[in-house]
């Protein structure tokens, strides 16, 4: 099977009359991490919602390989291999970590084996399997959300603010987890306020400003690129 890309071309999105995304184009390849950065309110979450089929009004092109996704219902987009991990939201608080994981395993898949597999990426969850998800720390909760996403065997993950509210050591662990996902061939699009963290993981960067891409860069050391840093105000 050839390498697939997630392609977004000339994407527009609206909340009522408000034209929030004004023609965004970006590409994510398998096994790579792409950064989508920009201030609060510029349209990062709206980009994810549009790709995931969750915006009532979006126009343009979103394709995965040869398949056109825009206009498909969210579950079909998830089945095609694109899984959105929203910011902030907690996993099912009253269920145990194990139940949260089991619920996410597709019916056709061996639950035990699938869960063992994701625990190799997120080993910290193993000792928490029998506790209620509601008592997890912020970092463990984020890892649970990502583990649930991984159980669907995605080709691409859309991670919205994966380090929000996490302590520096946990942020570092999160970076290692994301690298492991890339090693498995998963393409990752990350929207973050933590630009330094994201630039260390990414070879491609898009900076969004008021619904348009203001800067696009490719490079091995984006975290060291003065133009990028000054553009981001860091
Ligand atoms: N449900 C909504 N109805 C109307 N406007 C909205 C809605 N959700 C977001 N917006 C507006 O759309 C714009 C883009 O918001 P979006 O959440 O995509 O930005 P963001 O870059 O993800 O920022 P943040 O990091 O704060 O979430 C903002 O001006 C926001 O106020």
UniProtKB/TrEMBL annotation:
Name this polypeptide is given: ABC transporter ATP-binding protein
A GO biological-process term: L-amino acid transport
Homology family: Belongs to the ABC transporter superfamily.
ABC transporter domain mapped to chain residues: 6-232
Species annotation: Sulfobacillus harzensis
A Pfam family annotated for this UniProt entry: ABC_tran
InterPro entries attached to this UniProt entry: AAA+_ATPase, ABC_transporter-like_ATP-bd, BCAA_Transport_ATP-bd_LivF, P-loop_NTPase
Signal peptide: none
SMART domains assigned to the protein according to its UniProt record, in alphabetical order: AAA
